Amino acid sequence: MARDQDFDELVRLGDRHRLEGNAAKAEPLLREALAIAEDDSPPEPRKLTEALNTLGILCKDLAKYDEAYTLYSRALWLAEHAESVDDREVATLYHNLGGIEHARRNYAAGEPLARKGLEIRRRLADGSETALAQDMVALAAILDGQQKFDESEGLYVDALRILDREPEANAGEIAVALNDLGAHYAQRDQIDRANDLLTRAAELKTKTLGPRHPDVGVTLNNLAIVHKRRGDFARATALYRDAVGIFEEALGPDHPKALACRRNLARCDADARELPG
């Protein structure tokens, strides 16, 4: 019983630190939780699946994509072969595996995984509307990577319609959907619509997560792209610098998000210097 309590507390604290954007505090706690789950004899499938999945999410945040994929894959095998793990967890793991391929930009590989997760979630019909909307947004982002814009736009709109039924409870998920839909419109050169959605997403993320959370940095980077394309290099530069600072502080200077954002900032500075006058 004591080890079960230790496990639950480690997962709770580790996941809380992860959600707060503090990966350095989260990682040792979640790795210890996994060690406890693996030491059980025999391992309890639900407990081990939870430990694998929770650490996998953190590894994705840290851009440890190969490790995250392995953790998710182990968890999915357990979930699909253990009676004590229900289909909601199976749907979540397909969602998460699709998210790894999205992060790697392997969109064609991620699409069937995300579709499988959404298919299972729809079949459950257990009232998990927030999770259903999250699955829709995840698939839509993968479709955007393949320029399948008509289907992805419909998924975003449907997801936001679901989430807006309980706006306070779903504030974090709404912010993610607004960010991704804003990036979608930016890809389609609908810059004013993109700016409006990304501005709303930045405000909502800042309110719900705090101004220095890495998810805020993601939206600031997207907003900077939009302002650069509008010709407002000063505003774009300021946003890129804010985003770089957030990423370096929360994730480290060598994280792919920090590196990509610094490249964006350097290109923005170079393009601004080439302007006439």
Account of the 3D structure:
- There is one protein chain.
- With 277 residues, this protein is mostly helical.
- It has three domains: 1-84, Alpha Horseshoe (Serine Threonine Protein Phosphatase 5, Tetratricopeptide repeat); 86-165, Tetratricopeptide repeat domain (Serine Threonine Protein Phosphatase 5, Tetratricopeptide repeat, Alpha Horseshoe); 178-271, Serine Threonine Protein Phosphatase 5, Tetratricopeptide repeat.
- It is built from 13 helices and no strands.
- The protein has helices spanning 2-19, 23-39, 45-61, 65-81, 87-103, 107-124, 129-144, 149-163, 171-187, 191-209, 214-229, 233-251, 256-273.
- Helix 5 runs parallel beside helix 7 and helix 9 (171-187) packs parallel to helix 11 (214-229).
Show the helix and strand layout.
Blueprint: H1 2-19, H2 23-39, H3 45-61, H4 65-81, H5 87-103, H6 107-124, H7 129-144, H8 149-163, H9 171-187, H10 191-209, H11 214-229, H12 233-251, H13 256-273
Helix pairs in contact: 1-2, 2-3, 3-4, 4-5, 5-6, 5-7, 6-7, 7-8, 7-9, 8-9, 9-10, 9-11, 10-11, 11-12, 11-13, 12-13
